Amino acid sequence: MEVKELLNVREDMYGQYSIVSQISQDIKKVMKESPNYKIMPAFARESLDMIANKIARILNGNYYYDDSWRDISGYATLAVMEIEELEKHETDNAP
User: Fold this and answer.
1) Taking Cα atoms as reference points, which of 31, 4, 29, 33 lies closest to residue 17?
2) For position 94, what pLDDT does the model report?
3) Residue 50 and residue 58: Cα distance in Å, rounded?
4) Distance between CA 87 and CA 83 in Å, rounded?
5) What letter would DSSP give residue 35?
6) Is there a contact between 46 and 40 (Cβ–Cβ < 8 Å)?
7) Chain centroid to CA 22
8) Phi/psi at 85 (nearest 5 deg)?
9) Which of 14, 43, 52, 78 suits a disulfide with 61, CB 3.0-4.6 Å?
10) HEC profile for 29-79?
11) Residues 65, 32, 35, 93, CA torsion sign
12) For every one of its 95 residues, what pLDDT tens digit does the chain have, with 9 covering 90 and above?
């Protein structure tokens, strides 16, 4: 598939890129202004950033496209897995 063809397919699914980008950046701006954002580990911030992008795609494009919803679940699950791993190491290193 040519790049332009792929971009057309994506636009049909998610809507115009410039609008998705603006929605995503607006969501991320709110997140970055929150009290905990700067102190959160990178995995938590990245998961939230990716979820914001998926939310923007849903708000601007095909909200019935289940892959977008699954991606949100996936990024949340990755964050949970990281938290569980950190907790495991804390337990393993307890006196």
Assistant:
1) 4
2) 63
3) 13
4) 6
5) S
6) no
7) 15
8) -65, -45
9) 14
10) HHHHCCCCHHHCCHHHHHHHHHHHHHHHHHHHCCCCCHHHHHHHHHHHHHH
11) positive
12) 799 999 999 999 999 999 999 999 999 999 999 999 999 999 999 999 999 999 999 999 999 999 999 999 999 999 999 999 999 887 777 66
Place of tokens 């708000």: 59
Write out the two tokens for 53.
């992008």
Is the CA virtual torsion 42, 43, 48, 51 positive or negative? positive
- Give dist(CA 7, CA 92) in Å, integer: 48
Q: Which amino acid belongs to residue 50?
A: M
**DSSP code of 16?**
-
Placement of tokens 């995503």 in the chain:
24
pTM exceeds 0.85, yes or no: yes
| 45/47 Cα distance (integer angstroms) | 5
